[in-house]
Amino acid sequence: MTAAIYSLFIINKSGGLIFYKDYGSAGRMDTNDSLRLASLWHSMHAISQQLSPIVACSGIELLQADTFDLHCFQSLTDYVLKNPFYEMEMPIRCELFDLNLSQATQKNHVALLGR
């Protein structure tokens, strides 16, 4: 099944929001709201890893609500790292990253695992 991407948050391993892009037409969140949401998601994800009865649980992967699904994809590598001027854990400001991300999301439908 396919679904639209409305927003993309990239959170570093410390829980800091390093990238946010809004694709929805319902209005963009202000900076404080996006930071709060990223921090809340990071905290819930970390707590779920510790509370899970499954050994080596990777945490929450999908949170389903009535009007949206919130997916967590973890990546060990990142195309941003190909930029020699990018510093780890810092906000992502890379033109090539933005271009490739736009191309990936302009396809209007993105296949999401587990749906």
UniProtKB/TrEMBL annotation:
A biological process term (GO) from this entry: endoplasmic reticulum to Golgi vesicle-mediated transport
Key words, A-Z: Endoplasmic reticulum, ER-Golgi transport, Golgi apparatus, Transport
SUPFAM superfamilies: SNARE-like (SSF64356)
GO CC terms of this entry: endoplasmic reticulum; Golgi apparatus; TRAPP complex
InterPro entries assigned to the protein according to its UniProt record, in alphabetical order: Longin-like_dom_sf, TRAPPC
SMART domains: Sybindin
Coiled-coil spans in chain: none
Predominant localisation class: endoplasmic reticulum
Compartments in which it is found: Endoplasmic reticulum; Golgi apparatus, cis-Golgi network; Golgi apparatus
Pfam families found in the cross-reference section: Sybindin
SUBUNIT field: Part of the multisubunit transport protein particle (TRAPP) complex.
Protein family membership: Belongs to the TRAPP small subunits family. TRAPPC4 subfamily.
Protein name (record): Trafficking protein particle complex subunit
